[in-house]
Structures are given as C-alpha cells and as structure tokens.
C-alpha cells in the first residue's frame, strides 16, 4: 500500500530492479505477495504497487476469472515459499466484466473461449443483479473481488494457513482515474 501511495503521487522508488537484485533472486525467490488481477493493460500490479523483481507472484485473467489452473497458481506462492499475502485486485471500468455482464443479461454467449470467462463471472453477475445500484458493471466488478476473496479464504489448502494467521487474503479495487488501490475486504491488522 505504501508502494501504491508512491504510484498515486508519482514519487516512485522503482525498487528491486537493478542487476544486484537480479542476481540476488536468480537462485531462489520469496515474494511477499501473490496478486490475482485483470489482464487490463492499465492495471499492471508490479507498477501500481511500485515493486520490482522477485517481489510479487502475479496471476492475470480477464475480470479475474478463476478456474483450477488459476487457483492452483494462486496457491503456489503460499504453499511453496510461504507467501503471507494474497490480493485479489479488481478495477474500475473493467472491460471483461462489462462484456460478461452484457452477455449474461442479453443471453448472448461470447465467441470462442471468451465464454469461459463469462461462465466464471456468472456468480458475480447473479449477486450484482440482486444488489442493483446505479452502475451494475461496477457493482459486478466489486462483487467478483469479494466472492473470489471468500473462495480463496475457504480454499482447501489455503484455509488452514488463514486460520493459523500465516496468510491474509485481501480484496482490493483499483481506480483508473486516481491510481489508488482501495481495500475492500480483510486488510490484516
Ligand atoms: Zn478488467
């Protein structure tokens, strides 16, 4: 979050990006966080948290759509290198969420494997429709974060780490307008 404040203000440190750091992490890695975010070109986690090499595991899918391969990739850090933090990061004006919302509302499947993203986002759509509100796509994007965060917290291999206090699973939302990351759920105390 300190890195994100630097990103917002423009006072960037660009940490962990020199040849020394490259050598230090060449044989082993111990990132402090795992981030599941969207493929959106305007939401690169390493940049918006002002991090560098070996700092983060990053998984990116359209609308943070999940599935066994994605969940396995999220589990990888906490299980293999004791990563203490998972962040699910949604964002403002998410094109993938908007496309899934429109597809489900109109009953029109998207072409090819885009439909797999729609299927993955269906629970968020259903909850967003129940919630209502002036901007249903924004609501759905936020619901997707809170649903995924809850899923990961109760994940079979992650839940024991969470209850032991060695893993936090945090939901967060990125503003394209301000660059600011807002924590939605479960910030560690
Ligand atoms: Zn997106």
From TrEMBL:
Gene3D superfamilies per the UniProt record, alphabetical: Carbonic anhydrase
UniProtKB keywords: Metal-binding, Zinc
Region span, Disordered: 1-20
Cofactor-binding details, from the entry: Binds 1 zinc ion per subunit.
Molecular-function annotations in GO: carbonate dehydratase activity; zinc ion binding
Pfam families: Pro_CA
Top-level taxon of origin: Bacteria
Binding-site residues for Zn(2+), renumbered to this chain: 38, 40, 91, 94
Keyword Transferase: no
Tagged with keyword Iron: no
Cofactors that this protein relies on: Zn(2+)
Record-stated family: Belongs to the beta-class carbonic anhydrase family.
Function in brief: Catalyzes the reversible hydration of carbon dioxide to form bicarbonate.
Name this polypeptide is given: Carbonic anhydrase
Organism the protein comes from: Streptomyces palmae
